[in-house]
């Protein structure tokens, strides 16, 4: 089989990423989360939430606390993260898979969160993944993208995959959705990737962006 990043994440890198970042779960506070802040800011009350790249489901657990009537689902390629999450957060529905193969019904979710996933997706699978996300998100639903901020497309080596040369890809992922005229840009903000605080003096290519899009398949056609 051809080397690809999906295969590497399923075999070892997703588990390694989880172990490297396990402290995030212990330090997570829902009231300091940019994603939940957006939902509160825009008075979005979700009924069914999907998080792509959910790790052990700590954010979904926080959302369940804020919205007890919501059903929360998460996918991740890490077997260890999902096992850990099932023990801690039994009300989160987990599936071990990747964004290009979502095991859900069409229009099943009114909120989809994609957190630091697009930048490591194989370029051959990017549009398939975007199509799958669009398929499961209902019309009038909301898409939240958390990823690196970049005004132009950049390709950097991804050092944690050791058996072949892998890359990370920074670009304006929301533009793929907005250029279809099926999604409207509601909000986009940037913070320093390390400190998670606003920083106008930071390196523009190491910022983190949080973007809120609304899917409305008829809004642009006037």
Sheet having the most strands: 7 strands, mixed
Give the oligomer, counting copies of the same chain as homo and different chains as hetero: single chain
How many strand elements? 9
| Strands ordered across the widest β-sheet | 3-2-1-4-5-9-8
DSSP strand content: 25-35%
CATH architecture assignment name: 3-Layer(aba) Sandwich
Task: Give the averaged pLDDT, no decimals.
Answer: 93
Q: Using only CA atoms, what is the Rg?
A: 17 Å
Number of helices: 7
Structure classification: alpha/beta
CATH topology assignment: Rossmann fold
Strand and helix order: HHHEHEHEEHEEEHEE
Low-pLDDT windows of residues: none
| Broad CATH class | Alpha Beta
Tally of discrete structural domains: 1
CATH-defined superfamily: Vaccinia Virus protein VP39
Shape: globular
Report on this structure.
The protein has 222 residues and is an alpha/beta fold. It has one domain: Rossmann fold (3-Layer(aba) Sandwich), CATH 3.40.50.150. It has a seven-stranded mixed beta sheet with strand order 3-2-1-4-5-9-8. The chain has a two-stranded antiparallel ribbon with strand order 6-7. Strand 2, helix 5 and strand 3 form a beta-alpha-beta unit. The protein starts with a helix and ends in a 7-residue tail after the last strand. The mean pLDDT is 93.
Offer a few descriptive terms.
7 helices, Rossmann fold, globular, two-stranded antiparallel ribbon, 222 residues, alpha/beta, single chain, seven-stranded mixed β-sheet
């Amino acid at each position: 089989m051809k080397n690809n990043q999906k295969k590497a994440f399923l075999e070892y890198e997703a588990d390694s990423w989880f172990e490297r970042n396990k402290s995030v779960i212990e330090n997570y506070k829902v009231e300091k989360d940019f994603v939940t802040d957006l939902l509160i800011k825009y008075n979005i009350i979700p009924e069914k939430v999907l998080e792509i790249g959910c790790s052990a489901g700590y954010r979904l657990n926080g959302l369940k606390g804020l919205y007890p009537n919501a059903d929360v689902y998460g996918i991740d390629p890490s077997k260890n993260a999902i096992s850990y999450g099932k023990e801690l957060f039994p009300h989160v529905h987990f599936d071990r898979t990747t964004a290009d193969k979502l095991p859900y019904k069409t229009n099943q979710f009114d909120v989809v969160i994609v957190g630091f996933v697009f930048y490591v997706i194989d370029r051959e699978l990017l549009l398939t993944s975007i199509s799958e996300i669009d398929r499961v998100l209902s019309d009038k639903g909301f898409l939240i993208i958390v990823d690196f901020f970049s005004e132009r497309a950049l390709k950097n080596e991804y050092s944690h995959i050791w058996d072949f040369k892998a890359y990370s890809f920074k670009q304006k992922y929301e533009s793929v959705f907005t250029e279809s005229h099926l999604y409207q840009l509601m909000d986009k903000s940037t913070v320093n990737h390390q400190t998670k605080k606003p920083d106008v003096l930071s390196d523009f290519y190491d910022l983190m962006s949080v973007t809120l899009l609304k899917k409305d398949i008829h809004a642009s056609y006037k």
